[in-house]
From TrEMBL:
Belongs to the metallo-beta-lactamase superfamily. It comes from Nonomuraea endophytica. This is Glyoxylase-like metal-dependent hydrolase (Beta-lactamase superfamily II). One of its GO terms (molecular function) is metal ion binding. SMART domains: Lactamase_B.
């Protein structure tokens, strides 16, 4: 457990560090071609891959994202597999069967790859919350590897949706068509709204792998402004330090 948990408004939030490694050869570009408009070349980009466990006041467990998954995950072409999610979950005192809700921020392989292993859902008792726009735009690879095996465990929502008292998902398109973030009182789990701290310093800096660059930039500017105005704790997917207090 490289990163400590924190508690905000009675909800315990634990970063689960699924992997740490450089962007793999299949997607690697020079830093300045990855982050368009970045002020300086930072060289090889080493990412963390964070999922989050939220333990609510009612004791219910929500897992946000499932990481890169097993050695045969679709993420293997570019990310360091296998992920350590289940070891991290165990270290946080939870078993896969205990998870009530899985929120998949979006269907990129490093955010949903750990949902299924060997064709079987890893979190058998959980509803898996995904936006309808994301399901409709999914690649054939991810549909076959993740969505189809989830079967009845897939819970499709349309837009901003309350999941439980005090817990919401919000549709934040741009990085992907149906990208969503998770909000609890005082905390936002940000998915891939941001990829690197340079984008928090200047949210106008674009990420080359955003599906819709203009919409992603609009969403990023709007959401960063919102977390700043509300002084929320930001839980990031790929920063070296998971939490940023704004
Ligand atoms: Zn980490
Ligand atoms: Zn992504």
């Amino acid at each position: 457990m490289p990163h400590p948990s924190t508690t905000v408004a009675g909800v315990e939030i634990t970063p689960l560090c699924d992997a740490i490694g450089p962007m793999g050869p299949a997607l690697r570009l020079p830093f300045l071609e990855t982050f368009l408009g970045a002020p300086a070349d930072e060289g090889l980009w080493t990412l963390h891959f964070h999922c989050y466990l939220l333990r609510g006041r009612d004791g219910k467990l929500t897992l946000v994202d499932t990481g890169i998954g097993a050695a045969d995950s679709p993420a293997a072409v570019w990310a360091p597999v296998p992920g350590r999610l289940l070891a991290e979950l165990s270290a946080a005192g939870a078993a896969p069967e205990d998870v009530d809700t899985v929120v998949i921020t979006h269907l990129h392989s490093d955010h949903c790859g750990g949902s299924v292993n060997g064709g079987t859902p890893v979190f058998p008792n959980a509803r898996h919350v995904v936006q309808r726009a994301e399901v409709e735009a999914v690649s054939d690879t991810i549909r076959a590897a993740v969505l189809d095996p989830l079967g009845d465990g897939l819970h499709v929502v349309d837009g901003d949706t309350q999941l439980s008292p005090g817990q919401w998902v919000r549709l934040t398109p741009g990085h992907t068509a149906g990208h969503q973030i998770v909000e609890t009182e005082g905390v936002t789990v940000f998915g891939d709204i941001l990829h690197h701290p340079v984008q928090l310093a200047d949210p106008s800096i674009r990420y080359v792998y955003d599906d819709d660059s203009d919409l992603a930039a609009e969403t990023r500017l709007e959401q960063v402004a919102r977390v700043r105005a509300e002084h929320r704790l930001l839980a990031t997917s790929h920063f070296p330090d998971p939490f940023v207090q704004l």
